[in-house]
Amino acid sequence: MTRFEDMTLAAFGDALASKEATPGGGCASALAGALAAGLVAMVARTTTAERFADLAEAMEAVAVEADGLRADLLSLVDQDADAFDRVMDAFRLPKGTPEDEEARSAAVQAAYRGATGPPLAVCRHSVRVLELAAEVAERGNRNAISDAGVAALLAATALEGGALNTTVNVVSIDDQAFRSACESEVGQIQVRGRELLERVQAAVRANLS
What we know:
CATH topology: Four Helix Bundle (Hemerythrin (Met), subunit A)
CATH superfamily: Formiminotetrahydrofolate cyclodeaminase monomer, up-and-down helical bundle
Number of helices: 6
CATH architecture: Up-down Bundle
Mean pLDDT: 95
Helix content: over 70%
Strand content: under 5%
Structural class: mainly alpha
Low-confidence stretches: none
Shape: elongated
Largest sheet: none
């Protein structure tokens, strides 16, 4: 089976536009985060030339961390699709007897719990990408300021998309403590993400005015 992260951009776009349930919004959110991380790494690496000698070490560290985040987010494209497929598999289980119904219900709950993992990870990774985007926007190569701005926009989109997909799964989970913990964490990440996006946009505006 071809993994989504191994597809060409055109092939992934075709798969996204098909009638199949996966890849869907969760996968697209993870990809947006990966693209954001790639842009952060690029801006950081343009800030390691000789004329940025005082920043070179710090910016190389940013680039290396962004590379890791990009790899993690690309992996989450397929993880999100796999988790959704497990939810669908659980719903296909037989329910002809009370025992079947009980087993099916337990499997559905377990699958939904598992399906919250990838989009929540997208939120966590994306807010870190936004933190790095803020760093390169404020300290990085001025000639790449628009790239830092686009990185922040993509990371914010990934974060909000991850939040939506976490919520759509968690509302079907009966465990109220688990639901509340997820909802609380997502809410906190969203607040932080929006603050960081505004910070990057302010840096971009200041450098383009």
